[in-house]
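worker-03 picked up job from queue 'complexes'. Input manifest follows; two sequence lines, order preserved.
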Amino acid sequence: GENVEQHPSTLSVQEGDSAVIKCTYSDSASNYFPWYKQELGKRPQLIIDIRSNVGEKKDQRIAVTLNKTAKHFSLHITETQPEDSAVYFCAARSAGTYKYIFGTGTRLKVLA
Amino acid sequence: EAGVTQFPSHSVIEKGQTVTLRCDPISGHDNLYWYRRVMGKEIKFLLHFVKESKQDESGMPNNRFLAERTGGTYSTLKVQPAELEDSGVYFCASSPRLAATGELFFGEGSRLTVL
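worker-03 finished. Artifact:
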Protein backbone atom coordinates (compact mmCIF):
# COMPACT_ATOMS: atom_id res chain seq x y z
CA GLY A 1 0.00 0.00 0.00
CA GLU A 2 0.93 3.64 -0.01
CA ASN A 3 3.43 4.76 2.57
CA VAL A 4 5.60 7.73 3.47
CA GLU A 5 8.99 7.24 5.08
CA GLN A 6 10.35 10.06 7.21
CA HIS A 7 13.86 10.62 8.56
CA PRO A 8 15.34 11.27 11.01
CA SER A 9 13.05 10.29 13.88
CA THR A 10 14.84 12.72 16.20
CA LEU A 11 17.00 15.73 15.43
CA SER A 12 18.86 18.03 17.78
CA VAL A 13 20.38 21.26 16.53
CA GLN A 14 21.93 24.30 18.12
CA GLU A 15 19.91 27.48 18.04
CA GLY A 16 20.69 29.35 14.84
CA ASP A 17 21.65 26.24 12.88
CA SER A 18 19.60 24.73 10.09
CA ALA A 19 17.43 21.60 10.27
CA VAL A 20 16.46 19.32 7.43
CA ILE A 21 13.82 16.60 7.52
CA LYS A 22 13.38 14.23 4.61
CA CYS A 23 10.45 12.19 3.36
CA THR A 24 9.99 9.64 0.60
CA TYR A 25 6.62 8.62 -0.78
CA SER A 26 5.64 5.49 -2.65
CA ASP A 27 2.52 6.49 -4.62
CA SER A 28 3.57 8.16 -7.86
CA ALA A 29 0.06 9.65 -8.13
CA SER A 30 0.69 11.81 -5.05
CA ASN A 31 0.40 15.49 -5.91
CA TYR A 32 0.09 17.38 -2.64
CA PHE A 33 2.64 17.38 0.18
CA PRO A 34 1.88 19.22 3.42
CA TRP A 35 4.01 19.54 6.55
CA TYR A 36 2.46 19.69 9.99
CA LYS A 37 4.01 20.87 13.25
CA GLN A 38 2.81 19.51 16.57
CA GLU A 39 4.01 21.30 19.66
CA LEU A 40 3.87 19.46 22.95
CA GLY A 41 0.30 18.93 24.06
CA LYS A 42 -1.14 20.81 21.11
CA ARG A 43 -2.82 19.92 17.84
CA PRO A 44 -0.91 19.34 14.58
CA GLN A 45 -0.97 22.49 12.47
CA LEU A 46 -0.09 23.05 8.83
CA ILE A 47 3.09 25.07 8.42
CA ILE A 48 3.81 24.77 4.70
CA ASP A 49 2.72 22.70 1.72
CA ILE A 50 3.76 22.12 -1.87
CA ARG A 51 2.01 20.80 -4.95
CA SER A 52 3.56 18.56 -7.53
CA ASN A 53 3.81 21.26 -10.19
CA VAL A 54 6.27 23.22 -8.04
CA GLY A 55 9.82 22.27 -7.09
CA GLU A 56 10.35 24.58 -4.14
CA LYS A 57 8.35 26.84 -1.86
CA LYS A 58 9.58 29.18 0.83
CA ASP A 59 7.91 31.00 3.69
CA GLN A 60 10.30 33.06 5.80
CA ARG A 61 12.57 30.61 7.63
CA ILE A 62 10.94 27.44 6.31
CA ALA A 63 11.13 25.94 2.85
CA VAL A 64 10.04 22.74 1.21
CA THR A 65 11.63 21.11 -1.82
CA LEU A 66 10.14 18.39 -3.99
CA ASN A 67 11.86 15.94 -6.33
CA LYS A 68 9.08 14.14 -8.19
CA THR A 69 11.43 11.85 -10.06
CA ALA A 70 12.96 10.53 -6.88
CA LYS A 71 9.69 10.83 -4.93
CA HIS A 72 11.44 12.81 -2.22
CA PHE A 73 10.43 15.97 -0.44
CA SER A 74 12.20 17.82 2.35
CA LEU A 75 11.55 20.47 4.97
CA HIS A 76 14.27 23.02 5.62
CA ILE A 77 14.26 25.29 8.65
CA THR A 78 16.94 27.96 8.79
CA GLU A 79 18.09 30.03 11.78
CA THR A 80 16.33 27.67 14.16
CA GLN A 81 14.85 29.04 17.36
CA PRO A 82 13.74 27.28 20.57
CA GLU A 83 10.10 27.69 19.55
CA ASP A 84 10.78 25.50 16.51
CA SER A 85 11.08 22.55 18.90
CA ALA A 86 8.19 20.21 18.09
CA VAL A 87 7.28 17.05 16.23
CA TYR A 88 7.07 17.54 12.46
CA PHE A 89 5.01 15.29 10.19
CA CYS A 90 5.20 15.10 6.43
CA ALA A 91 2.28 13.78 4.40
CA ALA A 92 1.29 12.95 0.85
CA ARG A 93 -2.09 12.95 -0.84
CA SER A 94 -2.99 11.50 -4.20
CA ALA A 95 -4.94 13.33 -6.87
CA GLY A 96 -8.68 12.85 -6.61
CA THR A 97 -8.58 11.56 -3.05
CA TYR A 98 -8.93 13.03 0.40
CA LYS A 99 -6.73 10.41 2.02
CA TYR A 100 -3.48 11.73 3.51
CA ILE A 101 -0.62 9.35 4.22
CA PHE A 102 1.57 10.64 7.03
CA GLY A 103 5.16 9.93 7.94
CA THR A 104 6.21 8.72 11.38
CA GLY A 105 7.23 12.16 12.60
CA THR A 106 10.51 13.87 13.50
CA ARG A 107 11.08 15.22 16.98
CA LEU A 108 13.14 18.38 16.57
CA LYS A 109 14.93 19.84 19.56
CA VAL A 110 16.53 23.24 19.24
CA LEU A 111 19.13 23.69 21.94
CA ALA A 112 19.59 27.20 23.30
CA GLU B 1 -14.12 30.72 15.33
CA ALA B 2 -13.94 27.55 17.40
CA GLY B 3 -11.51 24.91 16.21
CA VAL B 4 -12.03 21.17 16.06
CA THR B 5 -12.85 19.89 19.52
CA GLN B 6 -12.48 16.35 20.79
CA PHE B 7 -13.74 14.66 23.92
CA PRO B 8 -12.48 13.13 26.10
CA SER B 9 -8.89 14.33 26.04
CA HIS B 10 -7.79 11.19 27.83
CA SER B 11 -9.52 7.91 28.55
CA VAL B 12 -8.19 4.95 30.51
CA ILE B 13 -10.19 1.73 30.24
CA GLU B 14 -9.68 -1.96 30.74
CA LYS B 15 -9.45 -4.49 27.97
CA GLY B 16 -12.91 -5.57 26.93
CA GLN B 17 -14.61 -2.32 27.86
CA THR B 18 -16.21 0.14 25.47
CA VAL B 19 -15.13 3.70 24.76
CA THR B 20 -16.77 6.36 22.62
CA LEU B 21 -14.77 9.30 21.34
CA ARG B 22 -16.46 12.43 20.08
CA CYS B 23 -15.38 15.03 17.55
CA ASP B 24 -16.97 18.37 16.79
CA PRO B 25 -15.58 19.72 13.52
CA ILE B 26 -15.34 23.34 12.55
CA SER B 27 -18.81 24.57 11.68
CA GLY B 28 -19.53 24.24 7.98
CA HIS B 29 -16.76 21.73 7.29
CA ASP B 30 -18.24 18.86 5.30
CA ASN B 31 -15.12 16.71 5.42
CA LEU B 32 -14.36 14.95 8.68
CA TYR B 33 -11.50 12.50 9.21
CA TRP B 34 -10.40 10.18 11.96
CA TYR B 35 -6.73 9.34 12.35
CA ARG B 36 -4.80 7.41 14.98
CA ARG B 37 -1.23 7.63 16.17
CA VAL B 38 0.27 4.76 18.07
CA MET B 39 3.35 5.91 20.01
CA GLY B 40 6.30 6.61 17.76
CA LYS B 41 4.50 5.65 14.59
CA GLU B 42 2.76 7.49 11.79
CA ILE B 43 -0.54 9.32 12.01
CA LYS B 44 -2.61 6.62 10.37
CA PHE B 45 -5.79 7.24 8.40
CA LEU B 46 -8.92 5.53 9.72
CA LEU B 47 -11.79 6.99 7.75
CA HIS B 48 -13.29 9.98 5.99
CA PHE B 49 -16.83 11.38 6.07
CA VAL B 50 -18.38 13.83 3.67
CA LYS B 51 -21.29 15.19 5.63
CA GLU B 52 -22.99 12.07 7.02
CA SER B 53 -21.66 9.67 4.38
CA LYS B 54 -18.62 7.47 4.79
CA GLN B 55 -16.42 8.16 1.76
CA ASP B 56 -13.51 5.98 2.69
CA GLU B 57 -13.23 3.64 5.65
CA SER B 58 -10.31 1.64 4.32
CA GLY B 59 -8.19 2.42 7.39
CA MET B 60 -10.57 1.06 10.00
CA PRO B 61 -8.66 -1.78 11.70
CA ASN B 62 -11.54 -4.19 12.25
CA ASN B 63 -15.21 -4.43 13.11
CA ARG B 64 -14.59 -3.46 16.73
CA PHE B 65 -14.43 0.13 15.49
CA LEU B 66 -17.61 1.97 14.53
CA ALA B 67 -17.73 5.57 13.36
CA GLU B 68 -20.87 7.60 12.88
CA ARG B 69 -21.73 11.12 11.84
CA THR B 70 -25.47 11.35 12.10
CA GLY B 71 -26.81 14.62 10.72
CA GLY B 72 -23.45 15.48 9.24
CA THR B 73 -22.26 17.49 12.23
CA TYR B 74 -20.34 15.87 15.06
CA SER B 75 -18.89 12.39 14.80
CA THR B 76 -18.34 9.55 17.24
CA LEU B 77 -15.85 6.71 17.13
CA LYS B 78 -16.73 3.72 19.26
CA VAL B 79 -14.33 0.94 20.14
CA GLN B 80 -16.07 -2.18 21.43
CA PRO B 81 -14.57 -4.27 22.94
CA ALA B 82 -11.27 -2.47 23.37
CA GLU B 83 -8.00 -4.36 23.05
CA LEU B 84 -4.52 -3.43 24.26
CA GLU B 85 -3.35 -2.56 20.74
CA ASP B 86 -6.07 0.06 20.43
CA SER B 87 -4.09 2.36 22.72
CA GLY B 88 -2.95 5.55 21.04
CA VAL B 89 -3.97 9.08 20.26
CA TYR B 90 -7.06 9.43 18.10
CA PHE B 91 -7.13 12.61 16.07
CA CYS B 92 -10.09 14.11 14.34
CA ALA B 93 -9.65 16.61 11.54
CA SER B 94 -12.00 18.57 9.33
CA SER B 95 -11.82 20.58 6.13
CA PRO B 96 -14.21 22.48 3.89
CA ARG B 97 -15.77 20.65 0.93
CA LEU B 98 -14.34 23.07 -1.59
CA ALA B 99 -11.09 24.25 -0.15
CA ALA B 100 -8.57 26.65 -1.59
CA THR B 101 -5.86 24.59 0.08
CA GLY B 102 -5.64 21.01 1.21
CA GLU B 103 -5.25 21.98 4.86
CA LEU B 104 -6.62 19.65 7.50
CA PHE B 105 -7.70 21.29 10.75
CA PHE B 106 -6.90 18.93 13.59
CA GLY B 107 -8.30 18.58 17.05
CA GLU B 108 -6.00 18.11 20.01
CA GLY B 109 -6.63 14.38 20.04
CA SER B 110 -8.12 11.87 22.44
CA ARG B 111 -5.53 9.72 24.15
CA LEU B 112 -6.83 6.20 24.74
CA THR B 113 -5.05 3.87 27.14
CA VAL B 114 -6.28 0.29 27.29
CA LEU B 115 -4.99 -1.68 30.29
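worker-03 released lock.
The mean pLDDT of chain B is 94.
Chain B touches chain A at residues 3-4, 31, 33, 35, 40-45, 48, 55-56, 58-59, 91, 95, 101-104, 106-109 (CB under 8 Å).
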